Structure to design on (254 residues):
């Protein structure tokens, strides 16, 4: 039996770890750290730093190469094939390093519940016959880090929030009936396809890290600044992880 702990680690700042996360890491027999290639070496460096800061016992750390997602014609097919490959990689590491079972921990960026597929990949292990019990340790999400960085509330007074992706915003435009939206997993600047009048944007990249970047303002003025800064940061670091919130002015002017 594998006791699998999926531990939310926030957005890159070791201070984002909860006491529950630190305890779960120290109870683990093994922590698996994924390598995502040289361009994203910052990500595994941060995970290594977190482990170095909080581990006090004999927990083993093993690094492995994360499979690369394909770029075919069908996005969902590519993602499903990628998840199958990741599940296979986990299974190989478990067979090699925990052949008799034990406590395995995976450090999940943000929180396992929000636009992360670690739980879905764990289900693939079950389907393949691996005996696992999954436990989730929640973490600070990029949305929480964004609103904290801008010192702002997530929702308007008594109002809803729609969370979507850059892909959907680009394909379908502003979600119907929404006044406040959060956009995640935007590989470009999907907001450029919107009519900017009456929209304010709050944007953040590398939230919680030493090179955190923030911009905010009316979309007509802030949007071009964000696009330029995003391109510069991506060129400098080789990767970028960002999120943004947009709010439409309501009919009553709020």
């Amino acid at each position: 039996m594998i006791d699998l702990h999926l531990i939310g680690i926030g957005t890159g700042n070791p201070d984002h770890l909860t006491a529950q996360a630190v305890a779960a890491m120290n109870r683990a027999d093994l922590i698996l750290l994924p390598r995502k290639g040289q361009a994203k070496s910052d990500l595994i460096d941060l995970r290594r730093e977190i482990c170095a800061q909080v581990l006090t016992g004999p927990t083993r750390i093993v690094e492995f190469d994360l499979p690369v997602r394909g770029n075919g014609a069908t996005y969902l097919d590519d993602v499903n094939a990628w998840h199958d490959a990741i599940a296979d990689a986990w299974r190989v590491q478990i067979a090699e390093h925990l052949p008799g079972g034990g406590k395995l921990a995976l450090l999940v960026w943000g929180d396992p519940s929000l636009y992360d597929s670690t739980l879905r990949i764990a289900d693939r292990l079950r389907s393949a016959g691996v005996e696992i019990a999954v436990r989730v340790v929640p973490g600070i999400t990029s949305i929480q880090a964004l609103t904290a960085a801008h010192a702002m509330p997530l929702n308007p007074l008594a109002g809803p929030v729609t969370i979507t992706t850059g892909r959907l915003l680009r394909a379908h435009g502003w979600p119907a009936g929404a006044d406040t939206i959060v956009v995640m997993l935007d590989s470009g600047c999907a907001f450029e396809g919107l009519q900017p009048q009456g929209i304010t944007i709050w944007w953040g990249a590398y939230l919680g890290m030493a090179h955190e970047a923030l911009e905010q303002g009316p979309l007509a003025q802030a949007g071009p600044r964000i696009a330029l800064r995003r391109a510069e940061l991506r060129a400098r670091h080789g990767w970028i992880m960002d999120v943004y919130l947009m709010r439409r002015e309501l009919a009553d002017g709020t």
